[in-house]
Amino acid sequence: MQLTSSVFDPDQLIPSKYTCDGENISPPLNWDEPPKATRSFTLICDDPDAPGKTWVHWIVYNLPSSIRSLPENAASTATPLSDSLQGRNDFKQMKYGGPCPPSGTHRYFFKLYALDTNLKLESGATKAQVEATMSEHILAQAQLIGLYKRRN
After folding, report:
1. Cβ distance 109 to 46 under 8 Å?
2. Interval 92-103: pLDDT, tens
3. Whole domain around residue 42: which residue ranges?
4. What is the count of structural domains for the chain?
5. What is the predicted pLDDT for the residue at 151?
6. Comparing C-alpha atoms, which of 52, 14, 34 is closest to residue 43?
7. 10 Å Cβ neighbour count for 20?
8. What is the rounded CA–CA span in Å between residue 13 and residue 10?
9. Over 80: is that where the pLDDT of 124 sits?
10. Do 89 and 59 contact (CB within 8 A), yes or no?
11. CATH number at residue 37
């Protein structure tokens, strides 16, 4: 699988519209065909360059296996698409929290997982809960890294 966005290229700057300096909405994401046995997708966005720990910006799970994209601002509601759920990010919210690094340029990892099941988790699960639940069910994964540095 390959994960892409129409608004930034791999290892390039994420437009400020999708950050705390802009509208703070989720960017559009697209992916190609997953393995045939895929039943759902999970998406996790995090920042390993954050001080103290990897900062979780977005968690979406139980995305339908029939979709191949998320539109811009998909994370504005608790259910971005029917039957999907959002986890609790490190902003203590169940939605997308855009890049907002305190200093320097940070990397933001958008990680998409094709799973052979739907996760039996309630809305608001943490990244650790999602990762533990899906660990034995990953068929394929794709990653897109975007960069961001705050405006002065």
Report:
1. yes
2. 999 999 999 999
3. 3-149
4. 1
5. 79
6. 34
7. 15
8. 9
9. yes
10. yes
11. 3.90.280.10
